[in-house]
C-alpha cells in the first residue's frame, strides 16, 4: 500500500528531524516503502517550496550532492514539530562537516535498519547520547575520550533472565585507521566499558581483516573482562546486505556466521561470567540459508595489511 502524500511528508520530516542532513539516496534507503527517486524529489521539492526544509550543496561528487535539512527559522520548526509530533528540543542540532557527510548518512541508515531488526531495543546515535545519560555509564566516560573510541550507535537490549539491559556498541568504518588507533579502540571496548558486544560494519574486506588481526595479535581477545567469550564479543556485520535491505548477516573473528537473534539472546539469558563455550548454540539455523564460514581471505601476517595514518 502506497502512503498518501501527507503521510510521506510526515515520514520525511521525521527522518530529517532526527538525522538531517540527508540526501535523496539516504532517504530512499530509510523510507518504508521506498519511493522512486523521482517521487521522492517531487516530495522534497514541495517541502522546500513550503519553507519547511532547506537544501545545501556540499561540494561532493562534483557539486552534484544535495542534502536536505529542516529549515532553521522558528516558524518552520513550529510547523514541523506539529506535523511530526516530535519536540524540537530532541532534534538533531549537530550538523556534520562536509568531510563527514557520507559517514553521517551511513550511520543514519544503519540506525534505521537496526530499529527494524531490533524493534524492542533502544537504538541511540552518537549525537543523541547527551539525551541518554545512561550511555555514559555503559561506556564509562567514552563520551569525553579524545581518541574517538566512542561508538557511532549504541543498542540497549531489553532485560532477559539476567535481569538487566544488555549493551551493544556499533562502529561504522569507511576507511582503514592506523594500527595504534585500532588497538586503542578495541582495547577500550573489551576492557574499559561494560558493553556486552561490539559490532563493526566495514566498507571492505581489508578493514575487516585489519580489525580481526589487531583483535588477536594484541591479545585483546584474551581480555580479563570478555576473554572467556572472546570469539563472540566482536562481530562484523555485512554492510552490503543492510544497504540492500536484506536481513543482517553477522560473522565473528573466526569468520563463522552467527545468528543475530541467538547472539542477542545470549546476552539476555546468560550472565557475563557464564558465557563460555557457547559458539555452537549461536550458529544460524538452516532456514537462514547461510554457509558456516565467511569467504574472506585471511592474511598470513600483519605486514600484508596496509594501515593508514590517523585522519580527522
Task: Summarize this entry quickly.
The protein has 312 residues and is of the alpha+beta class. The chain has helices spanning 5-19, 24-30, 37-49, 74-84, 101-117, 133-139, 179-191, 205-217, 230-233, 239-243, 260-269, and strands at residues 22-23, 53-57, 66-70, 122-125, 153-157, 166-173, 197-202, 234-237, 250-252, 257-258. Strand 2 and strand 3 (66-70) form a beta hairpin.
**Tally of individual helices:** 11
**Proportion of residues in extended strands:** 5-15%
Give the biggest beta sheet: 7 strands, mixed
First-to-last CA distance: 44 Å
Number of domains: 2
Estimate percent helicity. Answer: 25-40%
Oligomer: single chain
Based on helices, strands and strand pairing, what is the structural class? alpha+beta
Q: What is the average of the pLDDT values?
A: 81
Q: Tell me the total number of β-strands.
A: 10
Secondary structure: elements and pairs:
Elements: H1 5-19, E1 22-23, H2 24-30, H3 37-49, E2 53-57, E3 66-70, H4 74-84, H5 101-117, E4 122-125, H6 133-139, E5 153-157, E6 166-173, H7 179-191, E7 197-202, H8 205-217, H9 230-233, E8 234-237, H10 239-243, E9 250-252, E10 257-258, H11 260-269
Parallel strand pairs: 6-7, 7-8
Antiparallel strand pairs: 1-3, 2-3, 4-5, 5-6, 8-9, 9-10
Plain-language structure description:
- Helix content is 37%, strand content 14%.
- The chain has 312 residues and is of the alpha+beta class.
- It has two domains: 5-93, Winged helix-like DNA-binding domain superfamily/Winged helix DNA-binding domain (Arc Repressor Mutant, subunit A), CATH 1.10.10.10; 100-304, no CATH class.
- A seven-stranded mixed sheet has the order 4-5-6-7-8-9-10. A three-stranded antiparallel sheet has the order 1-3-2.
- α2 (24-30) runs parallel beside α5 and α7 crosses α8.
- The longest helix is centred in the middle third of the chain and has 17 residues, at 101-117.
- The chain starts with a helix and ends in a 43-residue tail after the last helix.
Amino acid at each position: 500500500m502506497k502512503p498518501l502524500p501527507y503521510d510521506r511528508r510526515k515520514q520525511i520530516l521525521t527522518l530529517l528531524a532526527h538525522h538531517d542532513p540527508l540526501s535523496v539516496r539516504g532517504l530512499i534507503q530509510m523510507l518504508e516503502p521506498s519511493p522512486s527517486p523521482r517521487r521522492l524529489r517531487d516530495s522534497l521539492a514541495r517541502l522546500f517550496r513550503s519553507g519547511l526544509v532547506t537544501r545545501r550543496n556540499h561540494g561532493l561528487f562534483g557539486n552534484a550532492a544535495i542534502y536536505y535539512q529542516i529549515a532553521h527559522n522558528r516558524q518552520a520548526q513550529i510547523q514541523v514539530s506539529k506535523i511530526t509530533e516530535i519536540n524540537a528540543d530532541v532534534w538533531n542540532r549537530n550538523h556534520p562537516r562536509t568531510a563527514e557527510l557520507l559517514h553521517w548518512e551511513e550511520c543514519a541508515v544503519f540506525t534505521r535498519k537496526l530499529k527494524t531488526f531490533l524493534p524492542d531495543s533502544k537504538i541511540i546515535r552518537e549525537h543523541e547520547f547527551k539525551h541518554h545519560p545512561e550511555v555514559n555509564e555503559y561506556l564509562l566516560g567514552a563520551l569525553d575520550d579524545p581518541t574517538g573510541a566512542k561508538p557511532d550507535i549504541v543498542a540497549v537490549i531489553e532485560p532477559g533472565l539476567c535481569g538487566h539491559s544488555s549493551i551493544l556498541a556499533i562502529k561504522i568504518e569507511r576507511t582503514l585507521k592506523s594500527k595504534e588507533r585500532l588497538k586503542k579502540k578495541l582495547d577500550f571496548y573489551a576492557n574499559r566499558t561494560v558493553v556486552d558486544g561490539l559490532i563493526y560494519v566495514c566498507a571492505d574486506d581489508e578493514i575487516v581483516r585489519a580489525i580481526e588481526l589487531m583483535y588477536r595479535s594484541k591479545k585483546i581477545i584474551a581480555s580479563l573482562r570478555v576473554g572467556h567469550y572472546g570469539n563472540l564479543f566482536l562481530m562484523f556485520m555485512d554492510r552490503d546486505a543492510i544497504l540492500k535491505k536484506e536481513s543482517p548477516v553477522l560473522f565473528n573473528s573466526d569468520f563463522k556466521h552467527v545468528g543475530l537473534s541467538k547472539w542477542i539472546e545470549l546476552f539476555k539469558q546468560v550472565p557475563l561470567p557464564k558465557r563460555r563455550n557457547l559458539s555452537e548454540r549461536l550458529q544460524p539455523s538452516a532456514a537462514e540459508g547461510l554457509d558456516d564460514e565467511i569467504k574472506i581471505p585471511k592474511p598470513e601476517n600483519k605486514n600484508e595489511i596496509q594501515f593508514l595514518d590517523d585522519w580527522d
